């Protein structure tokens, strides 16, 4: 179905791990890859059997950002003055919306360098797990561009305006430990433990009450714009919806019966 990446299915299909698969370009993003990723996340969002999604890269890198050779086909830039605008609008923006509005947990497994749009592809996920070999760079300024792929929206919210501007202006490389200290990364693992430790977390996510996680994501998303009063009202409304799910009933029953809950994601 997809040519630009590989998909591994785990835990009876509840977890889907997407691997960008062009190690020769350090998994640089192309228009076909962006289109396929958008289609994949759209499909995942509507598949009740899938409970968690992760994205990683084959080879030494997570993602080196936009493939400039793909973007600037010889002669195309001269013929189309709006080329960059169209790539961002038609390929990157729809993918950002699919990932950030996904009803399932979306986790980035950053196994190596994550640069430019590749860094933001990781940072727009719900959280990031990183290998000690990973680094992050907002390299857009190095070629005279601004952060896209949600960069100007999410980066200030993750690290504050001053640090966001510092990272964007300088293109500074952040090692995994520095990214962790800034709050860009949830966990950092040694290279030897990265796969095992990450899979433990992914297995847990795949067996969590998915409906509650979806509602939690929705509440956090609205918190950017809501007043405290509106956010408290939203919490009450979403808590009511959560309390009607089968997972809530199972969670209460398991607690009272002193056993491990068996959530179905419904």
TrEMBL record:
Gene Ontology molecular-function annotations: catalytic activity
SUPFAM superfamilies for the chain: ClpP/crotonase
InterPro entries for this protein: ClpP/crotonase-like_dom_sf (IPR029045), ECH/Chromodomain_protein (IPR051053), Enoyl-CoA_hyd/isom_CS (IPR018376), Enoyl-CoA_hydra/iso (IPR001753), Enoyl-CoA_hydra_C (IPR014748)
Database matches in PANTHER family: ENOYL-COA HYDRATASE_ISOMERASE FAMILY PROTEIN (AFU_ORTHOLOGUE AFUA_1G01890), PTHR43684
Family label: Belongs to the enoyl-CoA hydratase/isomerase family.
Protein name, entry field: Enoyl-CoA hydratase/isomerase
């Amino acid at each position: 179905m997809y040519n630009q990446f590989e998909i591994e299915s785990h835990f009876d299909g509840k977890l889907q791990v997407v691997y960008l698969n062009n190690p020769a370009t350090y998994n640089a993003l192309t228009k076909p890859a962006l289109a396929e990723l958008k289609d994949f996340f759209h499909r995942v969002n509507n598949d009740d059997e899938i409970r968690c999604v992760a994205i990683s890269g084959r080879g030494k890198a997570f993602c080196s950002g936009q493939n400039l050779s793909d973007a600037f086909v010889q002669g195309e830039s001269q013929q189309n003055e709006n080329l960059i605008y169209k790539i961002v609008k038609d390929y990157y923006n729809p993918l950002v919306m699919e990932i950030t509005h996904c009803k399932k947990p979306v986790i980035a497994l950053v196994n190596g360098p994550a640069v430019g749009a590749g860094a933001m592809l990781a940072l727009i996920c719900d959280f990031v797990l990183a290998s000690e070999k990973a680094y992050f760079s907002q390299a857009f300024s190095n070629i005279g561009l601004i952060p896209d792929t949600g960069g100007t929206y999410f980066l200030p919210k993750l690290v504050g305006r001053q640090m966001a501007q510092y990272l964007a202006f300088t293109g500074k490389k952040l090692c995994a430990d520095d990214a962790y200290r800034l709050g860009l990364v949830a966990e950092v693992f040694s290279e030897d433990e990265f796969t095992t430790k990450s899979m433990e977390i992914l297995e847990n996510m795949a067996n969590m009450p998915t409906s509650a996680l979806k509602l939690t994501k929705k509440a956090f998303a609205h918190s950017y714009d809501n007043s405290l009063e509106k956010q408290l009202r939203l919490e009450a409304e979403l808590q009511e919806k959560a309390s009607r799910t089968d997972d809530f009933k199972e969670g209460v029953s398991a607690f009272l019966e002193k056993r491990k809950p068996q959530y179905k994601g419904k």
